[in-house]
Amino acid sequence: MGGNQLVNRAELFRYVRLEVSDDTLTGHYELDGRRFREEVVFESVSSLRDPAPVAVAELWFLLAGLSYYKAGAARRIDLGETGVGPHGRALLEAALHDGLGEYSFRNNLPLDDVLITGGTQVRVAPPTLDAARVLIPFGGGIDSVVTVNELHHLDRSLFVVSPASGRFAPLEATAAVSKLDVVRAARRLDRQVLRGDENFFNGHVPVTAMVTLLAVVGALASGHGAVAMSNEHSASAANVRWRDRDINHQWSKSWAAELLIADAVAERVGTEFVVASFLRDRSELWVAQQFATAREYHHVFRSCNRAFAQAPSARAQNWCGTCDKCLFINLILAPFLDRDDLRDIFASEPVSDPRLDDALRSLIGLGLEHKPFECVGDPDESAVALGRLSELVAWRDVRRFGELARLTTPDRDFADLLQPQGSSRVPAHWLR
To answer: Rounded CA gap, 54 and 24, in Å?
Structure first.
């Protein structure tokens, strides 16, 4: 890409207005005169019109706009009458440059020249909070399951986002096992983006940051005093370095993004509301170890992205067994589960499939290119998991595990990765 397409960049992206009803947020945007509209309908909330949900909804409106901004990569962004304080502006700028980092890299389209103008004074609306009530964004994978189980001493509810095309069956089945109440949001993207256009740029957007802000809106409108995300330490690891910038597919799950979101939310509703990742100082291996004991979830959870396509007809009914996500989850669970039990869960054995050798090499840091642009752990975590498999009697027949493991040089060992990693903002009462 790049060359000829740069000529077709848009000139102006406008934040037109945010509409808030009792249960619906509607964002209106404009790209060189072309209009876009996104709608999010909530369930199990009181009115979204209350001051605190409205204040945070403006933050969502700012980040959600990037789903439409990316179509034209406009050189100027006009925030119009949208409320934005210093922390909100910092979050938007980081989401533009880092959250769209993979998009920029894949399109060879640096956004260093983008000028952001407009915006009005931010609204401050401190709510009445119940710190013991926690809303947990739930995606049906091992991460959010572990957060749900570890916070069992708190008053927990799940937050589930679905597309307007219908709910995701494996996510719903996994949520049902928890027996917890669910606050829902149905997200209707503009059809122009879903349909696509040959004149649009395409690429990854910081969707988890958008979901986090929707969760905060949902929490404030349903009596919860906190949002507990499920983003691990390794979510901060970059995939590749490009134009003096780290490109991280998981930027919106990173420590940097968590700090920016927390500050931007506090700017609007005060510091008592907590939005933090419960798993921030934990490795993917620690999460896998905990999930291995949650046997009631083993045959319903799904982390294969092919189960979560926007169009219901395109959704895989089972683990595909061939994508990077299937391979990674299979790899990190393997040290903690019986091999036959693991094969029964996946209906295949991705980690021992020789056809996936190149993908396995990429996961453990031996690939010819960068770490996969996918929600997978850092190369150390994968290399250590593979090293452990090479030592286990049950996997001794797969000789190449040992051959590959000897080629890696991880900085941490298996025991290290089962201990806390780095910083965390988790409040003390979550840890009881």
So the answer is: 11
